[in-house]
Amino acid sequence: MTYPRPLQRTNNMDKYKTKMTIKKWFSFINLEKLSGKSQKAIQSFDAYVKKLTFERTLKLFLFAINDETNSLRHLDNQLVNPKLRKAIGVDEISYSQLSRAIRALDSSVLMEIFSQLLLLVHQQTEGQKNEKIYLIDSTTFSFSQHSYPWAKFRKTKSGVKLHLSVCFMEEGLLHPEQFEISNAAEHDSEHLEILVNKPKATYVFDRGYLDFDRFDQMHSDGYFFVTRIKKNTITHLLEEYEVEKDSDIVSDQLVTLGKDKGTTSPFRVITIQRKGRADLRLVTNKLTPKAKEIGKMYKSRWQIELFFKHIKQHMTIKKYFSKSEDGVVNQIILAMIVYLLTLLIKLELGLKQTIFQILRVFRSIQFENYDYFIRIFDPG
């Protein structure tokens, strides 16, 4: 696996000997380069506080999410660590101050910080040879209706849904590209048009987004897609393509979809045999790749499931620091920022390790010099 623009070990590495690893992690964020609107929001935030400025609040909660801090009380206790206080630039902070701070962060500023980091990721990965595939799916975060009445979506439950597009390049190299947060009751298909916005790109999603009219529109607008269709979806055969012998490809056909023959544009339907399970039927408007390649593209969809698993297991995202809507939304955005920060370390150093492997090392030595962190991965 080759990553673009690895950091070369030179005499300039001396500059990392005095920089704390966590400070290097923070340094990818440049608040001074944010828009005028965001600068005003930051100034407004800082006008009413003395200790916990916007920058310190941002850094503190990024640390908390990355370190799997499970409550504001826990975070308050962690601040007894002088190295953490030095990294953030704060002394003692009360529980009530922390509670107000997470709610007061402006989500639009956090989203601009996400976009700023995303641009850096794009710059670092622009030399990738593999085709970028955009995986679309959603995940729900459920919680008590009593504590979160504003997010009610069932009789006894509340929850929010994260609608996400992940850019997948190869195994071990993916990142959140775009996301929206809604009430858990909202249907996935309502967000597809917003997440699909790169003409000529390929989007992979599950049948929860099944909509023949939308397929036609995507095709007309120049977007490529690969998705699954139901077993009982009616198709009208236009052309039968030859399939490889002794392969799991059952058929490869050009068809129209729906009850009437002319309902949709011609699309390609590929049927794939699966051991012990029903055949998989995929529909796509990509006519050039081999059927096996289309199957491989759809299989990559599971990478977004692994992403959801990662953020739920290794970041503070299932337990919330605030019961307010603003606090919950801010925490999810901060989790996306945390992922990009660690990915940027991976890309800058050209590391082959997974994000989780890097995260595990990072947590253990985040207050040590960055040069020491580098030498763990490159002892030569």
Protein model, in words:
The protein has 380 residues and is of the alpha+beta class. Among the domains are: 163 residues, no CATH class; 83 residues, no CATH class. Helix content is 40%, strand content 21%. It is globular and about 70 Å long. The N terminus is likely disordered.
Fill in the keyword field for this structure.
380 residues, 40% helix, alpha+beta, disordered N terminus
Topology of helices and strands:
Elements: H1 21-26, H2 36-46, H3 54-66, H4 72-78, H5 82-88, H6 95-104, H7 107-125, E1 133-144, E2 157-170, E3 173-183, H8 192-195, E4 202-205, H9 212-221, E5 224-228, E6 235-241, E7 249-257, E8 267-274, E9 277-284, H10 291-299, H11 302-314, H12 325-349, H13 355-365, H14 370-377
Parallel strand pairs: 1-4, 4-5
Antiparallel strand pairs: 1-2, 2-3, 5-9, 6-7, 7-8, 8-9
Helix pairs in contact: 3-12, 7-12
